[in-house]
Specification:
heterodimer, A: 330 residues, mainly alpha, two-stranded antiparallel ribbon, 11 helices, 2 strands, globular, B: 465 residues, 15 helices
């Protein structure tokens, strides 16, 4: 296997880690809507110790893309300029909100920052769905790998559908996470009820997305894209079933697996491309024409092989340390 | 300049990057230094004796820990903006430099960001879940992660100032040796200076907080007097380190980046021995100082440690640059460099004086401060001095980055060639206004929250409710 392929796989691993871990953080953030303050505090405590480290998966995915496929990083980030601006505003507000919300006893103060967390959870979830769908559907990229479109080229019914699917998937994933992290029985029952609706909605959105993908992208001509998506949709329905039957751990594992397979499916459909050019297939960015030199890829491979297992080890330890369910308040 | 690039988009992108960097760097030095100070405090707590003492020390750790966390959150969120900016506004830089610049950035994320963000979470929520020693180790790991992160990003930055370990292939800079990148002499100067300014900034912040609490908070006074003595020692190490590393780095610049050094001192013509201009009326268009007050021999002495030796002037360096790189203007904004450098050094010297005075007060006039009098009352006004380290950090960062203009990577790529070609000035205006507005809003909120917290928190031996 050549180094370019190894780095493609590593990028997929990083995005998978990001979508699983930040996926439930975003989902938990969305679940704050319309809840009383004591419940919101319990929800936030469930991700309090881990959200910051989870977010680093996204930052690392960005850094790894920069190091391994600089043209991919450059074209994607400059193409999605305004979308990323929106995402950064959301992430800034969300990041400080976790820190500031508890600094005063005042109810309005908490409400303000919880609003920021809700906003900061919805927007990135939506935009990552839009972004990933755009990679696959294709963007106007010229022969010099420059983006030749504007903000509105990023938005189409298909990409927005993908965004909505991501929001619903993460919301459902957030609920299955909360089911294994909270102890407040009444709250759990309520979340389970919401989870059944959201899980069903996520599943419908997924089916709609798979069908749309057949028309909007070349996923059918790619090796295994649709089959992988179909398996993932199956796992998602299993998660719904587990949740309904009160098998909380299994439900959370199932949503995690579903996200993993979905991410793998996206990138399998893309491979060996990183970004599709809608102007000319020849101008698409691939893991070869967008890559760094072999020397840099080799050094970075060595670094990743040493460092990623260490990171996984201490993050695993963190989750073990905080595995006790969050105690009910009041 | 390439065809089709929106000139306003270039200028606005530069402004946006400058604002984000300087804003980010208000918080970074505090993170670098305060993580270490809190770790030292917690080590003191872990090794302390009596029951009452332990309660107070734990409160003290949490007190400065909370201030650290507010600052840390601000640093983290603006750091993400930094990483995204390279691709968003500087796509041609990212293409040209990705092979070299991406590596330290990815290493920073893998080896440093994960450590600091993981263990800060454990530290905040792990007080009752971990043994004391294990908990203390977490904050040390956060300090390690933060400083490691600064190291990697400065490795990347040093390449932009002084490229090493590379070759040009197909119009891209390509890494030939990561080892050369790390051992770039520029890294040592930049990192040591940033590290010690972090110690100074955090130490100074703690001094100011202690002084204010001593003056205004009767019940907590004793603990803050004890903390003050430690903060003074901490800051003293920082200031001396800043001066030493700054001097070392400036001497290195004589060979590493002579244009930048000559601009700091507005030295237009090569001279041996070169005088040091204390003040100068700089005429950039004419390439000279219209008038100046100089100290003979001093600049040569600062560079060469002796009273003879040549220091190259800006006009000669411009001629050399034209020979090497073709026609163009290779002179940075000398007026901005010259005065920013003086503001930085001036603020540093002022801080040294203040640290010295606070040292005298805390070690020899402790009894006096226990009684109500003018001295203690005047400490209430210490917060007026708090901007000093932040001003020094900001102008220091400014001269570092503005001093390499017109280059984004010295000798390899010009800033004007690095901007994303697809951006319109309208788009950059929108984001520039958006980012600036949110930065201002958050600065006000963060300062308000921290001040309120400092005011209401008491360090006493009573157990928390």
């Amino acid at each position: 296997m050549d180094l370019n392929v190894i780095w493609f796989v590593l990028i997929v691993v990083l995005f998978t880690g990001f979508f699983i871990l930040e996926g439930f953080d975003y989902g938990v953030g969305m679940m704050l809507i319309g809840r009383p303050e004591k419940e919101r505090t319990q929800l936030i405590r469930s991700i309090g110790p881990v959200w910051d480290a989870n977010q680093v998966w996204m930052i690392t995915a960005g850094g790894a893309a920069f190091a391994a496929f600089p043209h991919f990083y450059a074209t994607l980030f400059s193409a999605a300029y305004l979308a990323l601006f929106l995402m950064l505003m959301a992430l800034i507000l969300r990041g400080v909100a976790f820190e500031l919300r508890g600094k005063f006893g005042n109810q309005d103060w908490k409400l303000l920052w919880d609003g920021a967390i809700i906003f900061g959870s919805f927007v990135p979830a939506l935009l990552w769905g839009v972004a990933i769908a755009n990679l696959l559907r294709g963007l106007p990229i010229d022969a010099q790998m420059h983006y030749a479109g504007n903000f509105f080229n990023l938005l189409s019914p298909y990409t927005i559908l993908a965004g909505i699917f991501f929001v619903l998937l993460f919301a459902f994933h957030g609920i299955t996470f909360l089911m294994v992290r909270l102890a407040d029985e009444r709250l759990l029952l309520d979340l389970q009820r919401k989870g059944k609706c959201l899980g069903a909605a996520a599943w419908i959105a997924y089916i709609a997305f798979i069908i749309a993908s057949m028309f909007e992208t070349d996923v059918l001509s790619q090796s295994a894209g649709v089959i992988i998506f179909a398996i993932s949709a199956g796992v998602l329905s299993a998660a719904w079933d587990f949740l309904r039957g009160g098998k909380q751990k299994s439900a959370f594992i199932a949503t995690s697996v579903s996200i993993t397979i979905t991410t793998v499916g996206f990138f399998t459909a893309l491979f060996p491309r990183l970004m599709v050019s809608s102007l000319n297939p020849e101008w698409s960015l691939t893991i070869y024409n967008a890559a760094s030199t072999q020397g840099t890829l080799l050094i970075m491979t060595i670094a990743a092989v040493i460092l990623v297992p260490i990171v996984l080890a201490y993050q695993y330890w963190t989750y073990k340390t905080f595995k006790k369910r969050v105690a009910p308040i009041g | 300049m390439r065809e089709g690039v929106d000139v306003d988009a270039l200028i606005l992108s530069r402004l946006q990057f400058a604002i984000t960097t300087v804003y980010h760097f208000l918080f970074v030095p505090v993170t670098l230094g305060l993580s270490i100070f809190v770790a030292l405090l917690e080590t003191w707590y872990v090794n302390s004796g009596s029951y009452e003492e332990r309660i107070k020390l734990k409160k003290l750790v949490k007190f400065f820990g909370t201030i650290f966390l507010i600052n840390f959150a601000m640093g983290v969120v603006t750091g993400i903006v930094q990483e995204f900016h390279f691709g968003m506004n500087w796509s041609e830089y990212s293409r040209f430099m990705g092979d070299i610049f991406g590596a330290p950035l990815a290493l920073e994320a893998l080896s440093a960001f994960f450590i600091e963000s993981t263990f800060i979470g454990v530290w905040i929520f792990g007080w009752d879940k971990l043994s004391e020693k294990c908990h203390c180790l977490c904050i040390w790991l956060v300090a390690l992660g933060s400083n490691l992160s600064a190291f990697w990003i400065l490795v990347a930055n040093s390449f932009m100032q002084h490229p090493v370990g590379y070759e040009i292939q197909d119009g891209r800079a390509v890494m030939t040796s990561l080892f050369d990148l790390i051992t770039n002499p520029y890294v040592l100067g930049e990192y040591s200076h940033a590290f010690f300014s972090g110690i100074t900034t955090a130490g100074f912040l703690v001094i100011v907080i202690c002084a204010w609490k001593i003056s205004t908070d009767e019940v907590s006074r004793e603990m803050f007097m004890r903390t003050l003595r430690r903060a003074v020692l901490f800051s003293f190490v920082g200031v001396m380190g800043v001066i030493g590393s700054g001097h070392m780095h400036a001497q290195y610049l004589a060979t590493g980046n002579p244009m930048k050094l000559a601009s700091f001192e507005a030295l237009w013509e090569t001279e041996d021995p070169a005088p040091f201009a204390v003040v100068a009326d700089i005429n950039q268009a004419a390439g000279r100082n219209d008038s100046e007050i100089t100290i003979p021999y001093l600049f040569t002495f600062m560079v060469h440690n002796s009273f003879s030796g040549e220091v190259k002037g800006i006009n000669d360096l411009q001629r050399e640059a034209v020979e090497n790189y073709g026609s163009g203007n290779y002179i940075p904004d000398v007026c901005g460099m010259f005065w920013s450098f003086r503001i930085m050094v001036g603020a540093g010297m002022l801080m040294l004086g203040i640290v010295f005075v606070m040292g005298l007060l805390s070690f020899f006039f402790g009894e006096t401060m226990k009684k109500p009098n003018c001295l203690r009352c005047s400490l209430k006004f210490m917060p007026i001095l708090l901007p000093l380290p932040f001003i020094a950090n900001s102008v220091g960062w400014y001269i570092m980055e503005a001093g390499r203009q017109p280059w984004i990577v010295v000798g390899l790529q010009k800033t004007a060639q690095a901007v994303s070609p697809n951006l319109s000035s309208g788009e950059v205006w929108l984001t520039l206004i958006g980012f600036t507005a949110i930065y201002l809003f958050l600065a006000v909120i963060a300062v308000f929250t921290a001040m309120n917290f400092i005011k209401r928190t008491k360090i006493t031996e009573e157990l928390e409710a």
